[in-house]
Amino acid sequence: MSQPIRKTRIPPDKLLQIINIQTHISQLWLNLGAIMDVAAQGACELTGADGAVIELTEGDKMVYRAAVGQAESQIGLRLNRQGSLSGLCVDTHQILLCDDTESDPRVNSEACLQVGIRSMVTAALRHDGVAVGVLKVLSPKPNGFDNTDIEILDLVTDLLSSFIFHAAEHETGRLFYLATHDQMTGLANRALFFDRFRQRLTQAQRNSDHFGVLYLDMDRLKPINDLYGHRAGDEAITEMGRRLLAVTRESDTVARLGGDEFAILMLKLKQTADVQHLIRRIQGELAKPFAFEPHTLKLDSSIGWAIYPQDGDEMGKLLESADRVMYREKQRKKHPIH
Fold it and tell me: What pLDDT does residue 29 have?
């Protein structure tokens, strides 16, 4: 169990890092997804943690909306608010320290085992007087944090909470949208994609049905940036998102994972041919000319895919399978066989 928290003096170099984080976050303005990523990474580095998470409250769940370090693969994870340290933190608005998850009755021991947490600190993120989530740093070892780490996290959450308040524009629905959508394209972001992926996987396992996942990597973005500048590259990314939405179904999730990487979650899949049909539609849509100012640019993408359950029965296996197919396609384009 944790000991009472005593005030300590934060080293000057740490204070300077916090100021740098504040400057970076202020430049992001209303891009809440990016703000949370910067804050999580900063908290991880400042405290020497092995991972950091920002969880937002959504009804009776706590959802991983940003995650770095050892927790990165858990983004989109949904946990019961009741019976967790994060839920208690949201309810009490107090910063909470857990020295050892194996002996602390406040924690969700099953979730801690899944993520690999033995000690952690959680601090509430407040929005308009209400705690809307937590910033959490974690360690795979017991007693991983001290009072200085706690004070650092307290400062970071005070800063982050202020930006969440303004980014959300005092609307809970707006907060959710900003946290789950890519600012440039308006598509689902990485956090929302993996959230829906986990939910669909659970449903498919329960109902013994099928779904598909596509990985897409733009092939011509670097030449566009080099020849016409990054504004043209941004327009190409945005146009890529529009065209993917144009050929997918409303039930599908189209996401920008970051940079020039996109993904599509096909929630409803009747047969394997449905995936190939969508790939042909995407290729046909991308083959159309793209006008940027006086220039006509070419869009293209290497596409990988996987189907549950034949290509994998776990999220990691399915993503690895889709990534391998995408990589082979990219290599084929670089070295065509005549």
Answer: 62
The residue with tokens 């996401």 is 255
Q: How far is CA 125 from CA 54, 55, 64, 151, 222, in A?
A: 9, 9, 13, 15, 38
What does the alpha-carbon distance between residue 284 and residue 262 come to, in Å, rounded to a whole number? 17
What topology does CATH give the domain 12-180? Answer: Beta-Lactamase (3.30.450)
pTM above 0.70, yes or no: no
**Minimal CA–CA distance to 256: which of 329, 178, 183?**
183
The three-class DSSP label of residue 21 is helix
Contact yes or no for 297/212 (Cβ under 8 A):
no
Q: Is the peptide bond before 11 cis (omega within 30 degrees of 0)?
A: no
pLDDT in tens, 270-291: 778 899 999 999 999 998 888 8
What fold is seen in the domain 190-334? Answer: Alpha-Beta Plaits (3.30.70)
